[in-house]
Amino acid sequence: MHVTRFDAAPGYVAPRHEGMRCLRLQGHEAGPAEQLWLGVSIVEPGGHTGLDASPLEKHYVVLDGELTLIAEADGRREEALLRRHDSCRYAPGEKRQLVNRSAHPATVLLAMPLPAAPSPSPSESKT
Questions:
Q1: 6-114 to CATH, choices 2.60.120.10, 1.20.1250.20, 3.40.50.150, 2.102.10.10
Q2: Separation of alpha carbons 20 and 18, rounded Å
Q3: How confident is the model over 10-52, as pLDDT tens digits?
Q4: Per-residue pLDDT tens for 81-107?
Q5: Is the pLDDT of residue 74 over 60?
Q6: Are 82 and 62 in contact (CB under 8 A)?
Q7: What string of DSSP letters covers the chain?
């Protein structure tokens, strides 16, 4: 078992995340993980991510407050207002953006797969 206390969770800087404090709860520098990692972000009023796609599936759960989640795929744009305990899944390749349009901070949980480990080169796999 590996426990990460919230007040000891390591912070990280994510590209194109403005007005957000991002913490790792499990995986990466927070501890061992084989399949996925968990993070929490505190999104200040006006805070947001960029509208970007990822090759990995992402799952979000709003823990407190409210966030507008935006998706773009195949030329279609969709928005949804998520409140406490609402969740959203983004497919691989789907553009996503999180925006806090409220006057209060919002807290959101992120779960996503770990990136695939690189395959050994042919010279490394020969024994």
A1: 2.60.120.10
A2: 5
A3: 999 999 999 999 999 999 999 999 999 999 999 999 999 999 9
A4: 999 999 999 999 999 999 999 999 999
A5: yes
A6: yes
A7: -----GGGPPEE--TTEEEEEEEEEESGGGS--SSEEEEEEEEEEEEEE-SB--SS-EEEEEEESEEEEEEEETTEEEEEEEETT-EEEE-TT-EEEEE--SSS-EEEEEEEEPPPPPPPPHHHH--
User: Which residue shows structure tokens 């206390």?
Assistant: 5
Residue that the structure tokens 């989640």 belong to: 69
Identity at 61, one-letter amino acid code: V
**How long is the chain?**
127
